[in-house]
Design a protein that fits this description.
The protein is an alpha/beta fold. It folds into two domains: 177 residues, HUPs (Rossmann fold, 3-Layer(aba) Sandwich); 118 residues, TPP-binding domain (Rossmann fold). It contains nine helices and 17 strands. The strands form four sheets. Strands 7-11-6-1-4-5-12 form a seven-stranded parallel beta sheet, with helices on both faces. The protein has a five-stranded parallel beta sheet with strand order 14-13-15-16-17. It has a three-stranded antiparallel beta sheet with strand order 8-9-10. Helix 3 crosses helix 4 and helix 5 packs parallel to helix 9. The longest helix is centred in the first third of the chain and has 17 residues. The structure holds flavin-adenine dinucleotide.
Length: 327
């Protein structure tokens, strides 16, 4: 009974990256929450060894529900199996990645059991009563709401890419508990064929260095120089929403609540004010450098290195200097 549950979403024979991210969240919160970390996996018997691998990443238990009908994801079927498991085992917390699959599943489970659900969390804390505080942008994404569920388990979906992935442990701990289901509920869904999506991978995916630009860069031509800098630093170009809407760069470069989430080792923001809607997408950056004429801009306050100055001048100077050093 109890436990910090994570939904183990499959992706091409492994688990979706967000599962490893949720494991790092659980490990970080464990000293305060003191809940057993459990990943719940559904699938056919022959995926047992893949499921067991999660024990190397901090799962103290893998609950593996087995039936041939669970070979591929179906919202209604998976939701019923999970709802029954929750009703029977009564976890304290249940987190899902805010992926298409997690967003289809979590509300069905919450709805079936009459539970609260916080969508798209980007941070967590534990309050003095030992409850999970679920943090997400709210009210037109203008404030950070801190939400504590009244129902148990406390359920939330978590934005992928915000948290680092759990590192493997030297020694795995815990056990895999295999639950062979004799029957499963019938599903109204049949898979006819699988058509891979057309969505290209974001140019920002996995970038270790991100150089991002905002309206302070003044023109599309100035913005284009970011691509030169990104190339020199083996990085990727990010942008704020207004500059995407101005047509300076395509929307796949947008960082923030309406765009991508990045967690590079180095993020440099040129002429970016640092509105919450943008910063939620770069909060996980290790080192933040901001260049802005206004020292009071929120991104300047958040930055590890804040450079007060004209980004349209500093950007070409920086490119020239890096070229000199490299040559
Ligand atoms: C529902 C909703 C969703 C949103 N989603 C997103 C999102 O996903 N991503 C996102 O980025 N935004 C998003 N926004 C918009 C967000 O609120 C901000 O308006 C936006 O991030 C600001 O972009 P900016 O920093 O480029 O522009 P501004 O806020 O106009 O800031 C420009 C900055 O440049 C500085 N500056 C001016 N001239 C110079 C110069 N020569 N050199 C250096 N600095 C200079 C200024 O001091 C200022 O700080 C969203 C808004 C809403 C309401």
């Amino acid at each position: 009974m109890g436990g910090f549950w994570i939904y183990g979403q499959w992706q091409e024979g492994d688990f979706h990256a967000v599962v490893y991210e949720l494991l790092s969240v659980a490990r970080k919160l464990q000293p305060d929450l003191k809940e057993r970390i459990v990943v719940v996996v559904l699938g056919p018997e022959d995926r047992r060894e893949e499921a067991r691998r999660l024990l190397h990443y901090g799962a103290e238990e893998v609950l593996f529900f087995v039936h041939p009908e669970l070979t591929y994801f179906r919202d209604d079927l998976y939701a019923e199996v999970l709802s029954e498991a929750v009703a029977e085992r009564k976890p304290t917390i249940f987190l899902f990645g805010a992926t298409a699959e997690g967003q289809a599943l979590a509300p069905r489970v919450a709805g079936t059991l009459g539970l609260g659900l916080t969508a798209h969390c980007i941070a967590f804390e534990v309050d003095e009563e030992g409850r999970l505080v679920q943090i997400r942008p709210s009210f037109g994404e203008n404030i950070m709401a801190r939400i504590v569920s009244r129902t148990r388990p406390q359920m939330a979906t978590v934005r992928p890419g915000v948290f680092p992935k759990a590192e493997p442990l030297a020694e795995p701990r815990g056990v895999l508990e295999e639950i062979k289901l004799a029957t499963v509920p019938s599903s109204a869904l049949r898979r006819r064929r699988v058509q891979p999506g057309r969505r290209k991978e974001s140019p920002l995916a996995g970038a270790r260095v991100v150089v991002a630009g905002g309206r302070g860069l003044q023109t599309r031509e100035n913005f284009q120089k970011l691509f030169e800098l990104a190339e020199l630093l083996s990085g990727a170009v990010g942008a704020t929403r207004p500059v995407c809407h101005l047509g300076w760069v395509s929307e796949e470069h947008m960082i923030g609540v309406s765009g991508e989430t990045v967690s590079p080792r180095l993020y440099i923001g040129f002429g970016i004010s640092g509105a919450l809607q943008h910063t939620v997408g770069m909060e996980g950056s290790e080192v933040v450098v901001a260049v802005n004429t206004d020292p009071e801009a929120p991104l300047m306050k958040r930055a590890d290195i804040a450079v007060v100055g004209d980004a349209t001048r500093i950007l070409p100077l920086l490119i020239r200097r890096i070229r000199e050093v490299k040559d």
